[in-house]
């Protein structure tokens, strides 16, 4: 008798079914990788960026600020001539754009210019910043207190 070579149609279908189930479970476990996930990641990255600017203000013993626009943000330094100037000589603190699909709405708690002022003590202007997408403009909110504390509040957290 000759030995069988190759796979049967049933064996191939079973393997495809197992791969499909595994992929589905993995996608459900990791969540949405679309625009809403990008908005949440952008909020988390911006929170880390503000903490970095706070540390820089403390180390430099200088007042720094962040101007926030709907398409991006830039870091400013209060110079000796008492004028706000953009920090352009640093690759880390240069103008940075927000991702294209992410909507950003800066809600002032205090009307000052620039938008977010960070003192050498780490204190800052209180603010609220919504990150979202076209269907949900306030998917996640970054809240900054005047004492320098930052909080991320997801839309699902606010309902609880």
Please sum up the structure shown.
The chain is α+β, with helices and mostly antiparallel strands and 160 residues long. The chain has three helices and nine strands.
Blueprint of the fold:
Blueprint: H1 9-30, H2 35-60, E1 64-69, E2 72-78, E3 84-86, E4 96-97, E5 103-108, E6 116-118, E7 127-132, E8 140-144, E9 150-154, H3 155-159
Antiparallel strand pairs: 1-2, 1-6, 2-3, 2-4, 5-7, 7-8, 8-9
Feature tags:
160 residues, alpha+beta, minor pseudopilin epsh fold, five-stranded antiparallel β-sheet, 3 helices, elongated
Please, could you describe this protein's structure?
There is one protein chain. With 160 residues, this protein is an alpha+beta fold. The protein has a single domain (35-159), classed as minor pseudopilin epsh fold, CATH 3.55.40.10. The protein has helices at residues 9-30, 35-60, 155-159, and strands at 64-69, 72-78, 84-86, 96-97, 103-108, 116-118, 127-132, 140-144, 150-154. The longest helix has 26 residues, at 35-60.
- Structurally, the number of domains stands at 1
First-to-last CA distance:
70 Å
Main sheet overview: 5 strands, antiparallel
From the spread of the alpha carbons, the general shape counts as elongated
Helix/strand/pairing category: alpha+beta
Relative strand content:
25-35%
Oligomeric state of the chains?
single chain
Q: How many DSSP helices?
A: 3
Please identify which CATH superfamily we are dealing with: minor pseudopilin epsh domain
List unreliable stretches of 5+ residues. Answer: none
Please identify the top-level CATH class.
Alpha Beta
How many distinct beta strands?
A: 9
CATH fold-level name: minor pseudopilin epsh fold
- Order of helical and strand elements: HHEEEEEEEEEH
Give average pLDDT, whole number. Answer: 86
Q: What proportion of the residues is helical, as a percent range?
A: 25-40%
CATH architecture assignment: 3-Layer(bab) Sandwich
Radius of gyration: 24 Å
């Amino acid at each position: 008798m000759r030995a069988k070579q190759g796979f049967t149609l049933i064996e191939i279908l079973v393997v495809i079914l197992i791969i499909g189930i595994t992929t589905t479970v993995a996608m459900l476990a990791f969540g949405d990788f679309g625009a809403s996930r990008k908005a949440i990641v952008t909020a988390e990255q911006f929170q880390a960026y503000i903490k970095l600017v706070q540390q820089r203000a403390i180390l430099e013993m200088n007042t720094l600020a962040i101007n926030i626009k709907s398409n991006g943000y830039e870091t400013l330094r209060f110079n000796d001539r008492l004028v706000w100037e953009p920090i352009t000589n640093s690759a880390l603190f240069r103008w940075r754009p927000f991702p294209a699909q992410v909507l950003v709405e800066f809600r002032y708690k205090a009307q000052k210019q620039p938008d977010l002022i960070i003192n050498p003590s780490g204190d800052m202007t209180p603010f609220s910043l919504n990150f979202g997408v076209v269907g949900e403009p306030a998917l996640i909110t970054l809240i900054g207190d005047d004492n320098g504390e930052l909080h991320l509040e997801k839309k699902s957290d606010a309902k609880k």
